[in-house]
């Protein structure tokens, strides 16, 4: 399986609006602009997938929706609580096991995603990763299971993705 891991784009900062719940923070204009460049790079790299799973938090859902729309995959988008920032890895692995896909994208939050990547690569938490907003990672997995089961193919920053998009 190809597992693409996409961190949500730049969102409204926490505490900007005291009445706004964390789960309701939306993407900023700058976040949308940068994400569109990342999506252009994804197209240029020929990335395709069978399914996109997203956290239900607004900023991740907006990121997933824009990605699905930009890659012509609106019908392939599903939300899952297993990608909420406080969810556990067992829950997320069970969710991934339910979907027999050769290629899928998950969209979520930090530090949950870095921890998940670390766990799939090493079987442990704490591998230092600098996973930027709108960053994209590709893991290869023969059989998804709880613990070490993945190989890192690449981890690209939004800036690197912008360079790929600009090279077309």
Question: How are the SSEs ordered, and which strands pair?
Answer:
Elements: E1 2-7, H1 29-44, E2 51-54, H2 58-70, E3 77-79, H3 89-98, E4 103-108, H4 112-122, E5 136-141, E6 150-156, H5 158-166
Parallel strand pairs: 1-4, 2-3, 2-4
Antiparallel strand pairs: 1-5, 5-6
Cα distance spanning the termini: 28 Å
- Which percent range describes the beta-strand content? 15-25%
Average pLDDT rating: 95
Helix coverage percent: 25-40%
CATH class membership: Alpha Beta
Low-confidence parts: none
What's the β-strand tally? 6
What does this structure look like?
By secondary structure, the chain is of the alpha/beta class. It has one domain: Rossmann fold. 35% of the residues lie in helices and 19% in strands. The protein has 5 helices and 6 strands, in the order βαβαβαβαββα. Strands 3-2-4-1-5-6 form a 6-stranded mixed beta sheet, with helices on both faces. Helix 1 (29-44) packs parallel to helix 2 and helix 1 crosses helix 5. The chain is globular. The protein starts with a strand and ends with a helix. The relative contact order is 0.23. The mean pLDDT is 95.
Comma- or semicolon-separated keywords:
globular; single chain; 5 helices; 168 residues; 35% helix; Rossmann fold; six-stranded mixed β-sheet
